[in-house]
Amino acid sequence: LFGVSSLAWTGHLVHVAIPESRGTHIGWDNFLTTLPHPEGLAPFFSGNWNIYSQNPDTVQHTFGKADGAGTAMLTFLGGFHPQSQSLWLTDIAHHHLAIAVVFIIAGHMYRTNFGIGHNMKEILDAHRPPGGRLGAGHRGLFDTITNSLHMQLGLALAGLGV
Fold first, then answer.
1. Could you read off the pLDDT of 67-81 as tens digits, one per residue?
2. pTM for the structure as a whole
3. How many other CB atoms are there within 10 angstroms of residue 125's CB atom?
């Protein structure tokens, strides 16, 4: 759920928000014909992904104007825009794409209702401490957590920081 929605948000940023910020209106009449990057999908399929981060917006760029606008879609500039004190829109798109990839891969790691993935009990039981000097590792931890309401409450409260 988080992976697919982050990927969808990245698509919105790349295909609608970033072109709009650069003065190109994206609507129902032109969203299929307006490319978000001048080279289209060629860098993606050739593995030349760094092209998507080249030529970022300049400091003089103002939202909705073409002056100072670059062609980059996914950057890792960091920091804030000096005039608006906002995060760079292309950095936000890059962040959401990275989160989408991580969550989609992690979502396939644990067992689903269809038997795809790993079983949490097997993962915990297989863990052995380094050097084997700290006991049995996590063997039996899954049963302790699933059978103890006190443990579940403690983990939930710790996760919330309470």
1. 888 889 999 888 888
2. 0.70
3. 17
